[in-house]
Specification:
The strands form two sheets. A six-stranded mixed beta sheet has the order 3-5-4-6-7-8, sandwiched between helices. A two-stranded antiparallel sheet has the order 1-2. α7 links the parallel β4 and β5. The radius of gyration is 20 Å and the shape is globular. It starts with a helix and ends in a 19-residue tail after the last helix. With 251 residues, the protein is of the alpha/beta class. It has nine helices and eight strands.
Length: 251
């Protein structure tokens, strides 16, 4: 194997991206073109997937945690995609429902959001929620009542924080699908979120999926970040995650 071929082999082993894809002239090979079209279709389907709380999170989990569902101001998927700001605001009747059903000022409030990939929340959400719930309880956190927000964007954290005033809020939300995976979930963390906060006040663990950050590692990293934010009494760019290269955060 020559040097160029060896380099290509190494690069392909390090990333699922389409590097050094074989070509026929200036175009992709037929096989790779068909795979590209299939991945594009999976990504589009993931955006328009829907979450059914009872079906996807199961009655046992719903009963144990008191899970319930609300919506943003976006009335449907098309409105959500075309008017992003509506996804950052709660539907007014649901705002009242959250205030009535959720405890005020919990130490930890977990929120589920479909985001740009409901498919990601459907697959990664239940086991990650279970893992976070168990870790938080074992560590002595006071937990708020978790709930699902349909047609939600990350900024909805601010309004929820303003309503419930949690010490730490965690939003589990489907990431924008790509051509390497359509099922990637993100966890956004905020310390005492409020209407004045922006992206600089949040912390993030992303790429939570089968070929990325695993559920167990993600939950450990999320709770470690939450504890760091709580200890420092702040969040965002001043909080740095400490990882040892080549080691799991559990090591």
């Amino acid at each position: 194997m020559n040097h160029e071929a060896a380099l290509q082999t190494i690069c392909k082993s390090l990333t699922p991206a389409r590097v050094f894809a074989p070509r026929k002239g200036t175009a992709l090979s037929t096989k790779d073109w068909l795979l590209l079209r299939a991945d594009h279709a999976f990504a589009r389907d993931a955006v328009f997937e829907s979450i059914d709380l009872e079906r996807d999170f199961r009655s046992e989990r719903i009963d144990q945690m008191g899970l319930f569902e609300v919506s943003s101001k976006a009335n449907n998927r098309n409105e959500y995609l075309l008017k992003p700001d509506l996804g950052r605001q709660l539907n007014p009747p649901d705002r009242n429902r959250i205030q009535q059903q959720c405890p005020f000022q919990p130490q930890l409030q977990i929120i589920l959001a479909d985001g740009l990939s409901p498919a990601a929340l459907k697959i990664q959400g239940p086991p990650l929620l279970d893992s976070l719930w168990e870790l938080a309880r074992n560590q002595g956190w006071t937990l708020g009542r978790p709930f699902l927000v349909h047609q939600a964007r990350v900024g909805i954290l601010n309004e929820i924080g303003n309503l419930l005033e949690p010490e730490i809020a965690i939003l589990l939300v489907g990431e924008r699908p790509g051509l390497t995976t359509a099922n990637s979930l993100s966890a956004y963390l905020a310390y005492k979120p409020n209407l004045a906060q922006d992206d600089a006040n949040r912390n993030l663990i992303s790429n939570i999926h089968g070929n990325g950050v695993g559920i167990k590692d993600a939950s450990v990293r999320i709770m470690a970040l939450a504890q760091s934010m709580r200890s420092a009494k702040t969040g965002g760019i001043t909080i740095k995650e400490t990882l040892t290269l080549g080691k799991s955060p559990r090591d």
